[in-house]
Write a structure and sequence with these properties.
The complex is a heterodimer of chains A (546) and B (487). Chain A has 546 residues and is mostly helical. Chain A contains 23 helices and four strands. In chain A, strand 1 and strand 2 form a beta hairpin. The chains are: A mainly alpha (546), B mainly alpha (487).
C-alpha cells in the first residue's frame, strides 16, 4: 500500500491540471471532470477505513519518506494513524459532496472555482498526512490561498472583507506556530537562547519530536504550548479568536462553508491532538497558575465560554447561516473541552465529535444553501410554514438538525455524551457547565426550526417553492447515513481512534507518573517495592447505544 | 605599481564588460531610434559572455579564493554567487526595458551603456576586499544610478527622483567615507583582513566605534533600511519602471554583499558593537516598511515600501554573525536569491501594465487581470505569495532561513516582530491579488503583450516556484558560497 498517501495528495493536483486544459466555455465538462477526480479521491481513500492496523496499534502506517531539503533535515515524510485516517476520510467525503453540491450554485468563473476546490483538497489531505513539521507547515499555509479565493470570488456581499480577515487571522496564528517549530528544531539540535540543545541530527520528524517530549524543559514546553495554542486556537476557532468565523462562513459559498466547517476547523483540533498534547505534557501537568487557572484550566475555561457564548449568540441571530456559524463555535468548544479533559473518553469523544460536527454542520450549510438558491434570502424572518410546501426538505432538515443537537440515536449524542463523561472525570464542574450548553443548543436549533418550518406561511413568495430534487437528496444522503451509522453503531469509529488516543493519554500522563514515582521513591525503602510507572488512566466504557 | 599578469585574468570578465559598455556608448551615437534594439541585444550578449568568462576564469588558474592587485580584489565563491545573480538580473532588466525604452521619447543608447557601467561597478564591488576598492566600485555604480533615475529627463517625477537620489546618495557617500577615514585612522590600513587583525588584539578606541557606525549608516542607506530609507519610495515611483526594478534588486544585492563582507570579515571582531545598531535598524525598518506599504495605492510605491520591509528582514541574517554554523550569511544568500526572483517578477508585471510613460501604476489597474490574462495573473499571484512569505514559494524558504538565523542568534523579540510583520504584509500584497481576482470589472489600462518581458516573467515565476517546492539544491549551493569568517 506504499504510495497511497502521495496518491491522495497529488490526485487533486492532477485533476487541477486536467481542468486547466478544458476550455472555459464548457462548464459542464469542467464540473464532471472535477466530480470524477473528487469521487476517485474518495474511493482511493477508502482503504484507510478497511485497514485493520489502526485498530491494533496507535502507530503511523502508510509511511513514506524521501529526502527533501537535506541541509535542513526536512523530509517529505507521510504517515497516518487512526485519527488522521478518519479525518482524511471526512475530508475526501465532504470534498466530493461539495463538488457536486456546487453544480447549480456556481454560475460564474466555474473553471477557477473547481481548480481552487481541488487545490484546497490537496492542502487539507496534506496537512493530515504530513509527519514532517516543515511539510506540515507548508500544507497548512498552502491551503489558505484557495480558501481565500473561494470566499473572495464566489462569496456574498461582504466577501472581500471576510476573505482577507480569514486569511490574516489564520496567518497571524500560524506564523507564531512557525516560531515554535523553529524553537523545537533548534532545541533538538544545537540549542538556542538559554536552552541547551540535545545535539541530535537536524530533523523535522514529528515522531522524533514526540519521542523527545520528556526531555524538553518544562519552561520551554510552556512557551511552545502557548505558541502552538495561538496557531491552533485561531483555526478551531476558540473564544476569543472566533471573530473571523461568522464572517467567513456567512460570506463563503455553500461548498466553501461546508469545507470550512467540516475540515478546516478540524485542522485546529488535529493540531492540538498531534502537537500540543504529546509535545508539551509538562506544560499540561504543570501547576503554574495565571490568574488562578493552570494552562489546562485556561483552555477548558475558554472552551466552556465558547460553548455558552456561541450558543447564546446563535440564539439571537436573524440569518440562518450565521446561526449555524455560531453553533460551530459552541460545538468546537465541546470538542476542545473533550481533548483537554486529557483522558481516554474525552479525547475519543473529542475526535468523534470533530467528525460529527463535520457531518451535521456540513449538512446544515448544504440545507441552508439549498433554500438560499431558491429564494436568495437566508433571513429567518422571511420564512415560516415551509414544511407545507417542502415536506421532504423539512424532514431532511429535521434529521440533520437533531443530529446537531445531540439527540440519542444520532451521532451528536454519542460524541457529546462521551465528551461529558471525559469532562466529568477531569473536573465535574466542567461537565456541569458544558451540559448547560447542550440545553442551549437544543433551544436555538429547535427555535430556528419552529420559525422556519412551522406556523403560517407569511411570505407569499414561498408558496411556489419546489421541494428538493434528486441531486440535492443525493448530496445529503451520505451525511444522513453517516449520522445514523455513528449514532447507532459508533464502535468501529471508536475502535479506529482508540489506540492513538491511548498513546496520547499515555504521553500526557507521563509527567504525572514521573512525579508520582519521584514522590513515592523515598517512602519505598524496600528495593523490591514496585514503583508506580503510570498514572491510573481512567478506563471508560464507550457508551454502547443500540 | 606593477601587478603580475595573472591578476588580469582575475578581472577578465569585468574588463570585458567595461569594454562592451564603452562600445555601447560609442555605437549609440551612430544608431537610429529603431536600431536601439540592436544595442539592447548586444548588451544582453555581452552580459552572457561576461557570465561565461566568469565561469572560465573561476575554473582556470588554481583554487579559490584567489586574490590579486595587492589584495584589493578577490575571486571567491561568495563573490561569484552574487556576480552570477547580478548578471542575470541585468539581463532581465534589459529584457524589461526593450519596449519601454523604445516607446519613450528619449534615445536609448546611453541607457544601456549606463546599465552596463552600473553592473561593472556591482561586479567589482562584491569582489572588493579593501575599503578603497569597494568605495570606488560603489561610486561607479551609484553615479550610473543617479543618471538612470533621471533618464526621463523632461518628466518632473523622474527629475525629482534623480535629484533626491543624488543629494541623499552623495550625502550618504560622505558619511560612509568619513566612517572609512576614522577606521583607517585607527587601523592604519584599508584592507579588510588587515582591519580585522588590527582590531582583534586591542580595545577599540571610541572614534573607531563611531567610524564603524558611520560605515553602517552608509550601508543602511544603500540597502534602504530605516532611518535612511526615505529616498526609496520616491525614487522607485519616479524612475522609469525597469530602472526601479533594477534599483530594487541589483544595487541592493550588491550592497548586501559588501555589507556582509565588510562587517563579517573586516569588522567581525567588533561584532559586539555593531549588532545592536543593526538590530535596532532591522526592527525599525520592518515596522516602517510594512506600515508605509499598508496605505499605498501606487504599485511602484508599494513595492518600494515592500523592498524596505524586506531590507529589514534581510538584516536579521547579519545578526547571526556570532553563530559558528554560518547560518546568518547562508540565510542571506538564500533569501537574496529568492528576493531577486520575486521582485523582478512583480516589477515585470508593472512594466507590462504601463501602456506609456507613467500611465497605469495604480492598484486598480490590475482589476480583472485574472479574466483578461489568467497566466500573467497566476504569475503575479506567485510573486505576491512569495513576497508575503507563503509556501510553497521561494520567499517562504528565504524567510524561514532568516527567521531561524535570528532565533538562533538569540533575537527572539525581533523574530517575533518579523513574523508578525510578515503576516501584516499579506494585507497589502493581497490588495493586488484582490484587484486581479476578486474585483469585478476591468482595469482601464490596455495590456500590451511583449514576448521578451513575458519570457523574463516566466523565468522569474519558474525560479520562485522551483526554489519554493524543491529548495534543496539552491540551499545546498548557497551553503558552499559562504565567506571565511566568524570568531
Amino acid at each position: 500500500m506504499n504510495g497511497l498517501l502521495s496518491l491522495l495528495i497529488f490526485l487533486p493536483v492532477v485533476g487541477t491540471l486536467v481542468v486547466l486544459f478544458v476550455p472555459r466555455e464548457k462548464p459542464s465538462v469542467i464540473r464532471w471532470v472535477t466530480t470524477l477526480f473528487a469521487g476517485a479521491e474518495f474511493l482511493v481513500s477508502l482503504p484507510l477505513w478497511t485497514f485493520a492496523g489502526f485498530r491494533r496499534s496507535g502507530d503511523f502506517f502508510f509511511r513514506e519518506t524521501h529526502d527533501w531539503i537535506p541541509s535542513l533535515g526536512a523530509k517529505y515524510s507521510l504517515g497516518v494513524d487512526g485519527i488522521s485516517a478518519l479525518l482524511i476520510l471526512l475530508t475526501t467525503l465532504l470534498s466530493f459532496i461539495s463538488v457536486y453540491a456546487s453544480f447549480t450554485a456556481i454560475t460564474k468563473r466555474e473553471k477557477e472555482y473547481y481548480v481552487f476546490l481541488l487545490l484546497l483538497e490537496t492542502g487539507m489531505v496534506g496537512v493530515f498526512c504530513a509527519l514532517d513539521f516543515f511539510l506540515f507547515y507548508v500544507f497548512w499555509e498552502v491551503m489558505l490561498v484557495p480558501m481565500y479565493f473561494l470566499i473572495g470570488i464566489w462569496g456574498g456581499p461582504r466577501r472581500l472583507y471576510a476573505a482577507i480577515k480569514f486569511f490574516l487571522y489564520t496567518l497571524a496564528g500560524s506564523v507564531v506556530m512557525l516560531l515554535a517549530i523553529i524553537a523545537l528544531y533548534f532545541f533538538n539540535t544545537s540549542g538556542f537562547l538559554g536552552w541547551k540543545g540535545l545535539g541530535n541530527p537536524a530533523t523535522f520528524d514529528i515522531v522524533h519530536f514526540q519521542s523527545i517530549a520528556s526531555q524538553i524543559p518544562p519552561d520551554l514546553q510552556l512557551w511552545l504550548f502557548w505558541a502552538f495554542f495561538l496557531g491552533f486556537a485561531i483555526k478551531v476557532p476558540m473564544f476569543p479568536f472566533h471573530t473571523w468565523l461568522p464572517d467567513a462562513h456567512v460570506e463563503a459559498p455553500t461548498a466553501g462553508s461546508v469545507i470550512l466547517a467540516g475540515v478546516l476547523l478540524k485542522m485546529g483540533t488535529y493540531g492540538f491532538l498531534r502537537f500540543s498534547l504529546p509535545l508539551c505534557p509538562d506544560a499540561l501537568a504543570s501547576n503554574a497558575r495565571f490568574l488562578g487557572l493552570t494552562s489546562v484550566g485556561w483552555v477548558a475555561a475558554l472552551s466552556i465560554v465558547g460553548i455558552i457564548y456561541g450558543s447564546m449568540v446563535a440564539m439571537v441571530q436573524k440569518d440562518m447561516k450565521k446561526l449555524v456559524a455560531y453553533s460551530s463555535v459552541a460545538h468546537l468548544g465541546f470538542v476542545m473541552l473533550g481533548l483537554f479533559a486529557l483522558n481516554n473518553a474525552g479525547i475519543q469523544g473529542g475526535i468523534l465529535q470533530s467528525i460529527n460536527h463535520g457531518l451535521s454542520t456540513g449538512g446544515l450549510f448544504l440545507l441552508v444553501g439549498i433554500i438560499y438558491e431558491r429564494t436568495h434570502t437566508r433571513l429567518i424572518a422571511d420564512y415560516g410554514g415551509l414544511s407545507g410546501v417542502m415536506p421532504v426538505y423539512a424532514m431532511l432538515f429535521m434529521i440533520i438538525l437533531l443530529a446537531s443537537i445531540g439527540l440519542p440515536l444520532l451521532n451528536g449524542f454519542v460524541g457529546e455524551f462521551t465528551i461529558l463523561i471525559g469532562a466529568f472525570l477531569a473536573d465535574w464542574r466542567w461537565a456541569a457547565w458544558a451540559s448547560l450548553g447542550v440545553i442551549l443548543g437544543a433551544a436555538y436549533m429547535l427555535w430556528l426550526y419552529q420559525r422556519v418550518f412551522f406556523g403560517e406561511m407569511t411570505n407569499e413568495k414561498n408558496k411556489g417553492l419546489k421541494d428538493v430534487n434528486l441531486r440535492e437528496i443525493l448530496t445529503l444522503a451520505p451525511l444522513i447515513v453517516m449520522c445514523f451509522w455513528i449514532g447507532l453503531y459508533p464502535k468501529p469509529f471508536f475502535e479506529m481512534t482508540a489506540k492513538s488516543a491511548e498513546k496520547i493519554v499515555a504521553a500526557v500522563s507521563a509527567p504525572n507518573a514521573r512525579r508520582l514515582a519521584r514522590e513515592a521513591a523515598p517512602r519505598l525503602a524496600s528495593a523490591t517495592a514496585p514503583v508506580p510507572v503510570a498514572a491510573p488512566i481512567p478506563v471508560v466504557a464507550v457508551p454502547e447505544v443500540k | 605599481m606593477p601587478f603580475p599578469a595573472g591578476d588580469t585574468l582575475l578581472i577578465l570578465p569585468e574588463l570585458f564588460l567595461t569594454a562592451a559598455a564603452l562600445v555601447v556608448l560609442i555605437w549609440a551615437t551612430a544608431v537610429s531610434r529603431e536600431g536601439e534594439r540592436g544595442l539592447a541585444y548586444f548588451s544582453v550578449a555581452s552580459l552572457a559572455v561576461t557570465g561565461l568568462l566568469l565561469f572560465v576564469s573561476a575554473r582556470m588558474g588554481g583554487a579559490l579564493p584567489r586574490s590579486g592587485f595587492g589584495r584589493m580584489f578577490v575571486m571567491d565563491r561568495f563573490g561569484l554567487y552574487f556576480k552570477a545573480i547580478l548578471i542575470l538580473v541585468t539581463i532581465v532588466i534589459i529584457l524589461f526595458s526593450l519596449r519601454f525604452v523604445g516607446a519613450a521619447t528619449y534615445p536609448g543608447g546611453e541607457y544601456y551603456g549606463l546599465l552596463l557601467f552600473a553592473t561593472v561597478g556591482m561586479l567589482f564591488m562584491v569582489s572588493g576586499t579593501n575599503l578603497a576598492s569597494i568605495i570606488v566600485a560603489l561610486e561607479l555604480m551609484a553615479l550610473s544610478q543617479y543618471v538612470l533615475a533621471g533618464y526621463f529627463k523632461r518628466e518632473t517625477k523622474s527629475l525629482e527622483a534623480a535629484a533626491k537620489y543624488f543629494v541623499l546618495g552623495a550625502f550618504s557617500s560622505g558619511v560612509l567615507l568619513y566612517g572609512v577615514s576614522l577606521v583607517y585612522g585607527a587601523a592604519g590600513t584599508l584592507s579588510l583582513a588587515g582591519i580585522a587583525t588590527a582590531f582583534a588584539v586591542k580595545d577599540p578606541p571610541v572614534f573607531l566605534v563611531v567610524g564603524v557606525i558611520l560605515v553602517a549608516c552608509g550601508m543602511f542607506f544603500k540597502i534602504a533600511s530605516a532611518p535612511f530609507h526615505v529616498w526609496a519610495p520616491d525614487v522607485y515611483e519616479g524612475a522609469p519602471t525597469p530602472i526601479s526594478a533594477f534599483f530594487a534588486v541589483g544595487p541592493k544585492l550588491a550592497a548586501y554583499a559588501i555589507f556582509a563582507r565588510i562587517f563579517f570579515v573586516g569588522f567581525g571582531p567588533l561584532a559586539g558593537d555593531w549588532t545592536a545598531i543593526v538590530a535596532a535598524s532591522a526592527a525599525l525598518t520592518m515596522i516602517v516598511g510594512n506600515a508605509g506599504a499598508l496605505m499605498q495605492t501606487n504599485v511602484k510605491r508599494l513595492l518600494g515600501y515592500s523592498s524596505i520591509a524586506h531590507a529589514g528582514y534581510a538584516l536579521l541574517g547579519l545578526l547571526a554573525y556570532g553563530d559558528g554554523s554560518g547560518i546568518g550569511l547562508w540565510s542571506i544568500l538564500v533569501y537574496l536569491l529568492a528576493y531577486a526572483f520575486m521582485n523582478l517578477g512583480a516589477f515585470g508585471l508593472v512594466i507590462l501594465l504601463e501602456a506609456k510613460g507613467y500611465a497605469g501604476e495604480s492598484v486598480d489597474d490590475f482589476n480583472g487581470l485574472a479574466k483578461k490574462n489568467p497566466w500573467l495573473a497566476a504569475a503575479m499571484l506567485v510573486f505576491l505569495l512569495s513576497l508575503a512569505g507563503i509556501p510553497p514559494t521561494a520567499g517562504f524558504v528565504g524567510k524561514y532561513f532568516l527567521f531561524s538565523a535570528a532565533m538562533k542568534a538569540g533575537y527572539f523579540w525581533l523574530t517575533l516582530l518579523a513574523v508578525l510583520m510578515s503576516a501584516v504584509s499579506l494585507f497589502y500584497y493581497f490588495r493586488i491579488a484582490r484587484a486581479m481576482y476578486l474585483v469585478d470589472g476591468e482595469g482601464t489600462v490596455h495590456w500590451r503583450e511583449e514576448p521578451a518581458v513575458t519570457a523574463a516573467i516566466a523565468l522569474c515565476a519558474a525560479g520562485t516556484l522551483a526554489m519554493g517546492i524543491l529548495p534543496g539544491p539552491f540551499v545546498q549551493f548557497a551553503r558552499t558560497c559562504l565567506l571565511p569568517f566568524g570568531p
